[in-house]
Write a structure and sequence with these properties.
The structure is a single chain. This protein is α/β, with parallel strands linked by helices. The chain is about 45% helix and about 10% strand. It has 20 helices and twelve strands. Strands 2, 3, 4, 5 and 6 form a five-stranded mixed sheet that branches. A five-stranded parallel sheet has the order 9-8-7-10-11. Helix 17 links the parallel strand 10 and strand 11. Helix 9 crosses helix 16, helix 10 packs across helix 11 and helix 18 packs antiparallel against helix 19. It is globular and about 110 Å long. The N and C termini lie far apart (about 125 Å).
């Protein structure tokens, strides 16, 4: 006998029923069925996987954006933070803030971009307007062809360049026509007299550096406009420049680590005891080679900033100044004492290190082999076109490039503050972060900013072309 079906009823007051519409009643009756329907788990919902995919994609883009070195791979698990026991929002933020490696990479990339940043030129640009009196005086003497000046210039490429600049100014002062200079290393011509012709020898540093404004501008015009390198050597220098430039910005170093430099400066290479002994013995045998201040010891010279930087010191300085490890570096100069092994500290930290021999194609350097001045010209061209330049020591090439880069718009030129930074180099207990901060502070104003020659009495205008040869909007009216 079948059991009768029992039905349950719910009594509802009439006032409530009358207040409900038919649609409300229908939704009320249907809602229990919907609520009874089982919900899908979170991990089975398409939206969950879409959000995960989007988050992973965002992290990959973020990682690539901060990783400037394409050769360093990013993490193979960009979404691994999802497995951490933390809430989604708080876990994401804390992950970034607490990831010291991530923040370190950000800081390094910021420093790298700062390293290639050019100094503020304060709006100075070339400005070689001569006065009316000077132009009139020059025109009158140009008609007189009865007086001539001949000069014999000696030394290396940069020394000869400086002497030619002086010769042009001297000829203008004397009202004479300058014959094409005789470029010699060893002067053998002894006849210093023929009718109406004067022969000058040994021009180095004979002309005053503090001259009237028009003559200062003449020096700049000769140094930066009139003097040009021969076409074949200029073409090769530009080719090597393009090979350095093809993969981005590059730094040029002028390394003064040759044997004769260590002997003449009274310094020691500081690389191995063997080479230090070699230099000391050479200096004892030929004491006249020491250029100046023979009464100072090597240690005193070092602390006074009179010694070239060796490869290790150059490396530490560049790292402290934020040079990126993948920076392309062109090194100029002669072969260092000890050969390429003397450069190992530098190569170990900055492997993209090249010189003209590395970049030239087979046979390109043969026409200039065993010609030191020609090789120096190639170095000069590549260094002048670099994004950043730094010499390890002073000298004619460094001074010439300092003025040339300033005249070209104050391109970055790092002047190592050897006298102030050497004590920190000798302090082994100084933490690297503190060392870097100190070195950076010492060089904040030594990056090629505008420097006025008038505040440096006796300095060459071809090294400090402001304000005689360059002007900005504030002093344009006085120079024109």
């Amino acid at each position: 006998m079948a059991k009768s079906k029992r039905q349950a009823y719910i009594s509802v007051p009439a006032q409530i029923i009358s207040s409900l519409s038919s649609s409300s009643l229908q939704s009320l009756l249907l809602s229990p069925k919907k609520s009874a329907k089982k919900k899908k788990p979170l991990w089975k919902r398409p939206m969950f996987w879409f959000l995960c995919f989007f988050l992973c994609f965002f992290l990959v883009i973020l990682k690539i954006g901060f990783n400037l070195d394409p050769l360093v791979p990013f993490s193979p698990y960009p979404c691994s933070f999802l497995h951490q026991e933390s809430s989604f929002t708080n876990g994401f933020v804390s992950n970034i803030e607490n990831n010291s490696g991530f923040l370190k990479k950000v800081r390094e990339n910021q420093e790298q971009s700062e390293f290639w940043k050019q100094p503020d030129g304060l709006g100075y640009r070339l400005c070689l307007g001569f006065s009316r009196e000077y132009n009139k005086w020059s025109g009158e003497h140009a008609k007189d062809r009865t007086r001539y000046l001949m000069v014999v210039v000696t030394g290396g490429m940069n020394q000869q360049r400086n002497q030619i600049v002086d010769a042009v100014v001297i000829a203008r002062i004397l009202g004479a026509a300058l014959a094409v200079p005789n470029l010699q290393v060893n002067v053998t011509w002894g006849d210093e007299r023929r009718g109406g012709v004067a022969l000058l020898r040994g021009l180095e540093s004979k002309l005053s550096k503090d001259l009237p404004s028009d003559l200062q501008k003449l020096r700049c015009k000769v140094a930066f406009h009139a003097l040009k390198f021969a076409a074949p050597i200029l073409e090769l220098g530009n080719k090597i420049t393009e090979r350095m430039r093809s993969k981005g910005p590059y730094l040029a170093l002028h390394l003064r680590m040759e044997k004769d430099v260590w002997v003449r400066t009274g310094c020691l290479p500081g690389w191995t005891h063997e080479y230090d002994e070699m230099i000391s013995s050479e200096r004892k045998l030929r004491p006249w080679l020491l250029t100046s201040k023979s009464n100072m010891t090597y240690h005193e010279r070092k602390l006074a900033g009179l010694c070239p930087l060796n490869a290790l010191e150059v490396t530490r300085l560049l790292k402290a100044l934020g040079a990126p490890k993948n920076a392309r570096i062109y090194w100029a100069g002669g072969n260092p004492l000890g050969g390429k092994e003397a450069l190992l500290p530098l190569i170990g930290e900055f492997p993209n290190l090249y010189n003209k021999e590395d970049l030239a194609l087979p046979g390109e350097l043969e026409p200039f082999a065993n010609k030191a001045s020609f090789m120096a010209v190639i170095d000069y061209i590549v260094a002048e076109n670099s994004d950043v330049f730094m010499p390890s020591h002073g000298g004619n090439m460094g001074h010439a490039l300092q003025g040339h880069r300033a005249y070209a718009g104050h391109k970055k030129y790092i002047t190592p503050d050897k006298r102030h930074m050497l004590p920190y180099f000798l302090n082994d207990s100084l933490p690297e972060a503190e060392f870097n901060q100190i070195i950076m502070g010492l060089h904040r104003d030594s990056l090629g900013q505008s420097e006025f020659r008038t505040s440096k009495s006796g300095r060459d205008v071809t090294k400090y072309p402001v304000p005689e040869c360059m002007c900005n909007d504030t002093n344009l009216h006085t120079s024109s």
